[in-house]
Amino acid sequence: MSEQENPTQKLWQNQPVEGIRMSAEEIHKRAGNFEKRIWWRNVREYVASAVAVGLFTYFFATSHDALSRVTFALFIAGMVWIVVQLHRLGSAKSLPVGLDTSSSLRLYRAELERQLAVVKNVFWWYLAPLVPGFVVYTIGYAVKVPRPVAWAGLALMDVIIAGMFYGVWRMNMRAARCLQKMIAELNGAE
Question: Domain containing 159: what range?
Answer without folding.
Answer: 22-188
